[in-house]
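<given_protein>
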Amino acid sequence: MKAKQFLKGIVYERSEIDEWLSGRRFPFSKYDPDIGYLHRDRRCREGVDGSWCTYTYERRTGARTILNNADQKCRINTYGNSYTNCEQVNDGETWQELLAARIGEPIRNFGTGGQSVYQMYLRMRREEEAVPAKYIIMNIYGDDPFRSLAPWQSIRLRSFLVNERSWGSDHTWPPQPYIKANPATKEFREFKNPCPEPKDLYDFCNLDWVYENFKEDFTLRIMLAKSNAENGTPEDSYKDIEDLAEEYGVKRTIRDSKELVETANLLFRDSAIYGAIRLVEKTEDFIRERNKQILFIGSYTSNALADYIDPRDEPRLSAMRRPGHSFNKDFMRFMKKRGDRYVDLIEAHAEDFSRRRVKLSDYLKEFWVFPDQDVTHYAPAGNQFTARITLGNLLRMLEPKPPAYLPALSEKWDTCVSLDQAR
C-alpha cells in the first residue's frame, strides 16, 4: 500500500463535514478552531452493565458540568484526556466530583476524550486566561504523547482499523494542532490546527489535497508501515522507514516485517516521549510564570496494568495499538522526579492488588468498564480509586486547606459547627 491509497480510506465526504458542523451527526464532538474539537452534550450507552451515560458541559467554559459545591469559587482546574473527562460514567461519577465532595469545594473538569498532551497544554493556556485557577491538575494517559504527533486523528485510527472507516458513529477523528519532535536533533516544533476555520475542513474531502499536504507526515509514515506489515506488503515501506530512521538518528537495514514494525515503533516511541517531556517542561514554565501550582496524574488502560503486574512474552495489547496505550518506564522516571506533585496510578493499582486475594482478571473487572477491550475507561470504582489516591497529594498542595480539612475554628467549636458559624 502506498501513501495515497492509505489516505483514500480516510478522506471525508462533504456530507459528513456538513453533519458534524451542524450537529446532526457525530455527537461526541464539535469543531474548535484552536484545539481541533471539544465535547457536545450527549448520552451514550457505554456504561457499566450496558447503562446509558449522560455527559453535559457548561456553556460558558466548555468544562463538564460542576455538581458538587457549584456555588463556590473554583480554585482547581483539571486538564487532560478521556480519563480526565471520565468517559463511560455519568456527570456525578467523575473523580473530580468525588474529590470535590470530599474536600468541600468545586473542581473544574476540562478533560476531552482522545486529546493529546499538546492539546491539553493548549487548552490550559487558553482557559487559564478565561477562568484562571491557582491549582492545576494535568492527567496524562499512556497514549497521549503519541497523539501529540498527529495532525489528523484519522491517520492514527486508520492503522488500528485496517480496511474499515476511520471513524465510528459518534466522532469524525478530526484534524488537530500537533508537534514535531526529533530526539536525535533536539528539534521541537509546534503546529497550529490545519483547519483554523470550519470551511477548511472541506479540504479533507479532496484526496489530491490531502496527499500533497500529508505525504511526508511523520505519523502517516509510521502508520503506513505498520499497516503494510499487517496487510502482508511490508516491502512497500522498507525504504521509507529506513530513511525516516536515519533522519531520527537510527541506522537500520530492514529485511522483514518484524524489523519494519520494530523500527517504526521505536521511532514513534522515542519521538512521542521526547515531545511529551518537552511539553511537560513547557507546562511547568507556564505554571511557574503565573505563580500557580500543578499536580500531574498518570493513568493507564487495563491492559497496561495487566502487563505491569503480570508480564508475558507477548503483551496483551494488540500489535497495531502499541507502543501507544501502554506503560512507558522512561516517561514514568521523568515524571517521578516531580515527587509528591506526581501521582502514578499504575503503581498505586499494583500496590493495591498486592494486598488483595483476588485473580487479576477479577481485579480489572472491578475498576474498568470493559477490561478485556484494547481501550476502556474507568467504571465508577476506578474514578473512586483515582480520587482516593490523589487526595493526599492534592491536600499537601492546597493552601489554605479546603473546607473539609480546616483546623478547629475555636476551642468551643472544635468538632461541630453550623454552616453559618463556619462561614
